[in-house]
Amino acid sequence: MSMELIKPGINLDFVGKIKYAVAFSAILILIGIGSIIFHGGLTPGIDFAGGSIIQVKFSKNISADQIRTALKSTKLESSIIQQFGVNEFLIRTSESFSDQKMLAANVEQPLTTAFNKDYEIRRVEVVGSKVGADFKRKAVIAVILSWLAMLIYVGWRFEFRYALGGIIALVHDVAITIGAVSIMNMEFTINILAALIFIIGFSINDTIVVLDRIRENVKLNPKKKLNDIINISINQTLSRTILTSLTVFLTVLALYLFGGAVIRDLAFSILVGVVIGTYSSVYIACTIVLLFENLKLSKMKGKK
User: Fold this and answer.
1) CATH no. for 15-44+131-303
2) 3-class secondary structure, 44
3) In 59-147, where do the E strands start and end?
4) Residue 152 gets which letter from DSSP?
5) Between the CA atoms of 211, 215, 221 and 222, what dihedral angle is there, to the nearest 10 degrees?
6) Fewest CB within 10 A of the end CB: N or C in the chain?
């Protein structure tokens, strides 16, 4: 027995709301772009910008300000200090602490002077700025190649108008998720990149189910208007779409709430992506298919 969230035979008018949906998407994307401009671009994490992360755990209650005071007049004076769990802190700096002497002089000595031996250095991560820049370039290429691969696959499996709808929906999802990362003032790290790749895969999977049903229904009802076919198709796949997305959403929400600081940014990005990806499968992809059809019809009328 399959689980039905939505009663069979439901007929919600999705196509009728397309104008509002497009306006809503445009507003979200503009807010995201505005936030990126306001923040002077995305804040690259250590993976992309280069630098060092030093994770320190203290055995008693310490505040970030106390650590900042202890690190005055060292190379870590202008670093970012973030609490990370209980009595644990991340010290982020653009300096490259690749040798032990530098680490000892700038971290161990000042901390020992201030807090005796009541701490331990859990990890030190160092990324050179050249490696970071190279990584940034490869990250952009990875996302664009994934879009192209999807375009070729969907274009080969369906028609070009469906492929275009699918890809524009993907670009839309990535743009809104990056905007959300900027609004929350998160660092753009390798985790966020992984979330984007996940969202691309999740969203196209959902979109293909809807587009496949549209294609089937076009064959079954060749005389029916495309608007009506799209509506019928979205309603037929609605139960599956909501169940799939809800399952992923609740799993990732649990990660966000209970997974700890390391995983929070990744989980947040996926949460945004799952919601937007589900919405774009219905509204953005189908809007493009409709636009294409209307263009084709107006061209045919023009020829007549």
Assistant:
1) 1.20.1640.10
2) strand
3) 80-83, 88-93, 119-127
4) H
5) 120
6) N
CA distances, 122 to each of 54, 90, 181, 190 (Å): 8, 10, 27, 20
Backbone CA torsion sign across 110, 115, 117, 118:
negative
How many CA atoms does the CB half-sphere of 115 hold within 13 Å?
Answer: 25
Domain ranges, ordered by start, for the chain: 15-44+131-303, 51-127
| Other CB atoms within 10 Å distance of the CB of residue 76 | 24
pLDDT digits (tens, 9 = 90+) for 212-265: 888 888 889 888 888 888 888 888 888 888 898 999 999 999 999 988 777 888
Task: Enter the pTM of the model.
Answer: 0.78
Those residues whose C-beta lies under 8 Å from the C-beta of residue 283, and which sit 6 or more positions away, are 14, 17, 18, 21, 22, 25
3-state secondary structure of 176: helix
The CA-atom distances, in angstroms, between 119 and each of 86, 102, 125 are 13, 18, 18
| C-alpha 19: how far from chain center | 25
pLDDT digits 0-9 by tens, 13-33: 878 888 898 899 999 999 999
Question: Residue 201 has which token pair?
Answer: 């895969």
- Which amino acid belongs to residue 170? L
CA 70 vs. chain centroid, Å, equals 37
Q: Are 168 and 195 in contact (CB under 8 A)?
A: no
51-127: what fold?
A: Alpha-Beta Plaits (3.30.70)
Q: Are 166 and 150 in contact (CB under 8 A)?
A: yes
